[in-house]
Amino acid sequence: xxxxxxxxxxxxxxxxxxxxxxxxxxxxxxxxxxxxxxxxxxxxxxxxxxxxxxxxxxxxxxxxxxxxxxxxxxxxxxxxxxxxxxxxxxxxxxxxxxxxxxxxxxxxxxxxxxxxxxxxxxxxxxxxxxxxxxxxxxxxxxxxxxxxxxxxxxxxxxxxxxxxxxxxxxxxxxxxxxxxxxxxxxxxxxxxxxxxxxxxxxxxxxxxxxxxxxxxxxxxxxxxxxxxxxxxxxxxxxxxxxxxxxxxxxxxxxxxxxxxxxxxxxxxxxxxxxxxxxxxxxxxxxxxxxxxxxxxxxxxxxxxxxxxxxxxxxxxxxxxxxxxxxxxxxxxxx
Length: 334
Hints:
Rossmann fold; seven-stranded parallel sheet
């Protein structure tokens, strides 16, 4: 049965894929954009993958009150993906924290006023696994905001989830709120100019612009799986929890494996060299980007418990190798 979904963040890697999947499923999508002219560009990109006759746009900004009541009016569900994603260093943390926190508050408030059935919020596995050194990180794990491993981006997502938890506690009669926590996201982008940090990393490996791959491991998910889990969480009547993790499996993916898979399938540009962990630790003394990447994973287990996601939604993640090859094909076509 089709529904009206209000979607934030449609111009982003995840948001655009959620919109395409929702439209393919027959739902109506009303997406928020900061500038109206963004709408037709997004429509054109999505039209390559899905019908867009049920896609509409409303102008609204995470840092302004205008437009949110219009965006939510009559909606059955809300999927809130909009939030700045900068894994590296920022001069001012508020660049990340303010839109994440204030935007989430505005979306939740407007959703309550509109009497929506459920709100699905995109978060990250980093606020679940960002402090776990042994064993599995699961839905009941919360990385403390003052943990020494926390980066500005992680802090912004922790703050946004605190807004969600407070909202849920203050509104026990609804609307219900579910958070989705993917690892690093790869997969074929709909926008050929997609510049998210994970896709930028992938481009560097695929093209050979990155001559060596760091010996790092992260939980990784395909954007199509992430989109599907959002939509399953939106309508499921079989949820046992309110936080769901998304990755290819329990074990983290080794970044050098991306290059190995690409080379095994004929990409001679993919680097053969691996930067060992001890070299990365040395280089981190002089390079902030390397230091931040180590901060996100070095010494942590990075293992995710995704059993609830599989069991509650009847979902199985796609294969890591297939995702790597699909991502490479999409990037090479762009």
